[in-house]
């Protein structure tokens, strides 16, 4: 998931409070209070090029206990997409591709509705691809990902509007591999990480020790482990996750990556960089799986940088961003409140007409079953109303995924349903724990109205 926001920070940083307390003491005090309340994570803050705070708080692993330190390796979620975007732009600079190239150049068998989609439209989430095509850890090859994406009915005509898509960035990862002849992990290591001397970022290649990686903890305290121990291919994440998430790093490595990107030409020429990353404007880039959160903020005007990583669904990085902002003299609004999410802000009304009463009834019944928190109720609904073909997930697998979704998001309230006749139903929702979002429901438009797949987008576009 991804949160982006820009133009929100202003040069209000103060050297000290009225009492003369230093910024380091003030921010450390905020984090110690959060730690006492249950926060686990690491924070890195700079002002005017000087390091204000770099410190771990709470536990990276609860059993046996391992404390967070600045060197703890954390999940960066959708900040992985920034490495993908940089890789595509590097390949353009080297004459290997153009961001205006159509997908048909790389995937000759692409159908007519997708053959003309440009790489730039995919990078900007304007291609019409779905949020996702399955679970992050479902075994899926590159070719299977491409085949599934090319068969998917686009959400809208390419270029018409924007809809956040992890699938789109997996397609970009496939392009990187095809053009470079290297796996995604190897390309990123050889062309981004190694030139910058970053050895604690990646997926499999750094060969992390288990004790170096923070575990994630669900709302009920369940240990979700670390992402590197999840099912994966021999050369990196399976393809629902590759290029759009999955990478891990440290706050120092991520600081060095973004500093090189925004302040030097080590990775890209300034004109190329500005296609996707405007170095002159404040920006926030964040990612999450609704358990682990990673948040990066940079304001060249106020000359500040804030990096926060957390590993507990009940004590998320965006929640400590607000008191840190107060301590630093920054505005507290990041566009999406303190709930975090993909992009922040209120969810815009999707294009399309209202869903038919029959479809709306099925979706409302699904939400009721989800909110019940009762596995038997959910199993009965899934058995009756979900597609159950040879390639579809088993009911018990769906229960596990949907149950985890409810645990993280809390009860869901439906605020509207929209059908554009060319893709899944877009259901505007509000969740108890994470605020506004969109439920994406791929459902048959005729009886018996079977649901084929679900996606969730937290935050607005």
In brief:
The protein has 461 residues and is of the alpha+beta class.
Provide a descriptive summary of the structure in words.
The protein has 461 residues and is α+β, with helices and mostly antiparallel strands. It folds into 2 domains: 1-345, DD-peptidase/beta-lactamase superfamily (Beta-lactamase, 3-Layer(aba) Sandwich); 353-458, Nuclear Transport Factor 2, Chain: A, CATH 3.10.450.50. The chain contains 14 helices and 17 strands. The protein has helices spanning 23-37, 80-93, 103-106, 112-115, 119-123, 142-151, 166-180, 184-196, 251-263, 270-273, 317-328, 357-372, 375-385, 395-409; strands spanning 2-6, 41-47, 50-57, 59-62, 65-67, 74-75, 216-217, 223-225, 248-249, 283-288, 293-299, 304-310, 353-354, 412-419, 425-431, 435-443, 451-458. The strands form 5 sheets. The protein has a 6-stranded antiparallel beta sheet with strand order 1-10-11-12-2-3, with helices on both faces. A 5-stranded antiparallel beta sheet has the order 13-14-15-16-17, with helices on one face. The protein has a two-stranded antiparallel sheet with strand order 4-5. Strand 15 and strand 16 (435-443) form a beta hairpin. Helix 6 packs across helix 7 (166-180) and helix 13 crosses helix 14 (395-409).
């Amino acid at each position: 998931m991804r949160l982006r926001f820009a133009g929100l920070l202003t040069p209000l940083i103060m050297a000290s409070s009225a009492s003369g307390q230093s910024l380091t003491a003030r921010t450390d005090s905020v984090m110690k209070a959060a730690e006492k309340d249950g926060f686990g994570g690491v924070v890195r803050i700079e002002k005017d090029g000087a390091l204000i705070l770099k410190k771990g708080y709470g536990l990276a692993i609860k059993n046996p206990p391992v404390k967070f330190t600045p060197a703890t390796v954390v999940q960066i979620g959708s900040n992985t997409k920034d490495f993908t975007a940089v890789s595509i732009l590097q390949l353009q600079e080297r004459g290997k591709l153009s961001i205006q190239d159509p997908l048909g150049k790389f995937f000759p068998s692409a159908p007519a509705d997708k053959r003309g989609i440009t790489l730039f439209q995919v990078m900007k989430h304007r291609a019409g691809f779905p949020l996702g095509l399955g679970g992050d850890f479902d075994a899926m090859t590159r070719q299977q990902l491409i085949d599934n994406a090319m068969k998917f009915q686009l959400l809208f005509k390419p270029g018409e509007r924007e809809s956040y898509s992890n699938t789109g960035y997996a397609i970009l990862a496939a392009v990187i591999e095809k053009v470079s002849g290297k796996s995604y992990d190897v390309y990123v290591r050889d062309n981004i990480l190694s030139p910058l001397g970053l050895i604690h970022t990646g997926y499999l290649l750094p060969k992390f020790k288990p004790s170096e990686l923070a575990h994630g903890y669900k709302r009920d305290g369940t240990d979700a482990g670390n992402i590197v121990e999840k099912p994966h291919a021999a050369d990196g994440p399976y393809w629902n996750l590759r290029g759009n998430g999955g990478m891990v790093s440290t706050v120092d490595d991520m600081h060095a990556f973004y500093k090189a990107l925004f302040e030097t030409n080590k990775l890209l020429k300034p004109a190329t960089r500005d296609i996707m990353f405007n170095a002159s404007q404040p920006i926030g880039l964040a990612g999450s799986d609704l358990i682990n959160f990673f948040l990066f903020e940079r304001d060249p005007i106020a000359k500040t940088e804030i990096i926060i990583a957390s590993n507990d669904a009940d004590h998320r990085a965006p929640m400590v961003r607000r008191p840190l902002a107060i301590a630093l003299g920054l505005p507290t609004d990041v566009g999406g409140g303190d709930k975090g999410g993909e992009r922040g802000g209120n969810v815009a009304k999707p294009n399309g007409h209202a869903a038919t009463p029959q479809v709306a009834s099925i979706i409302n019944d699904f939400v009721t079953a989800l909110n019940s928190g009762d596995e038997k109720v959910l199993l009965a609904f899934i058995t009756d109303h979900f597609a159950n073909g040879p390639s579809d997930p088993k009911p018990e697998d769906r229960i596990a995924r949907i149950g985890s979704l409810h645990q993280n998001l809390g009860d869901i309230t439906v605020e509207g349903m929209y059908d554009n006749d060319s893709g899944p139903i877009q259901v505007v929702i509000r969740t108890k724990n994470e605020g506004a979002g969109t439920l994406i429901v791929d459902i048959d438009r005729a009886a018996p109205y079977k649901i084929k797949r679900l996606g969730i987008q937290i935050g607005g576009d």
